[in-house]
Amino acid sequence: MTLPLERHAYGEHEVVMPPQDPTRFDDASIDLDTRLAMFRLLHRLRKFEKRAYDLFMQQLVKGTSHLSLGMEAIATGFGTAMREDDYTFATYRGHAHTLARGVPMEPVLAELLGRANGLLGGKGGSMHLTSVEHGVMGSYAIIGAHLTIANGAAWSAQYRDSGQVAVCFFGDGTTNIGAFHEALNYAAVFKLPVVFVCENNLYMEYTAIADITAVPRPAADRAAAYGLEPVLVDGNDVDACYLAADAALSRARSGDGPVLVEALTYRHGGHSRADPGKYKPPGELEAWLAYDPVNVYRDRLERLGTDPTRLDDIEADVVREVDEATEAPRQARCPTRPRPSPTSGRMEATHGATDLSRSCRARDRAGDGA
Question: Which string of DSSP letters, residue by residue, matches 168-195?
Answer without folding.
Answer: EEEEGGGGGSHHHHHHHHHHHHHT-SEE
